[in-house]
Amino acid sequence: MRLSEDVAKLLIEKINSNFNAKYNYKNNKNYSYQIILQDNLQQLATFIVNKRKEFEFSIPKIHLNGSNTTSLNEKIINITLQQRKQLGINKSTIHYLKNNLLQGKKIKVYSKTFSKLKQL
Fold first, then answer.
1. What secondary structure, in 3-state letters, does 62-102 show?
2. 57 and 79 housed in the same domain
3. pLDDT tens series, the chain, 120 aa
4. What are residue 30's phi and psi, to 5 degrees?
5. pTM over the 0.70 mark
6. Do residues 61 and 73 both lie within one domain?
7. CA-only gyration radius of the chain, Å
């Protein structure tokens, strides 16, 4: 099975965003998942070369960012003038989001606008 270029890019972006997310690890400090895995591998290496007598593999639970971006994109593209006004979203906000989506660019929807778009 082969993935199309767009699907492969989306998959890589999702994996990257989850690996860069912060998780509680050691003394309740936040670390990226990459750093946590690197720390566990270093502990394993020291255990293998007999510098440590015990090895504890500790990885926090992952909370995947599962926002459905395709439905959000469709909502942004199909929003009407009346819906935008009812939700209280600025005209320029929707304009730039639509333009970026139609040009194939990534968009960043801030939490305030996102919560309003979820009402649709």
1. CCCCCCCHHHHHHHHHHCCHHHHHHHCCCHHHHHHHHHHHH
2. no
3. 687 888 888 888 878 777 777 778 877 788 888 888 888 888 888 888 888 778 777 777 665 555 557 788 888 999 999 999 999 999 999 999 999 888 888 888 888 888 888 888
4. -90, 125
5. no
6. no
7. 21
Report the number of secondary-structure helices (H) and strands (E) in the chain.
6, 2
Q: Which domain holds residue 32?
A: 1-65
Quick one: 86 and 108 in the same domain?
yes
In this structure, the answer to whether residues 57 and 101 fall within a common structural domain is: no
Q: Are 31 and 22 in contact (CB under 8 A)?
A: yes
- How many domains does the structure of the chain reveal? 2
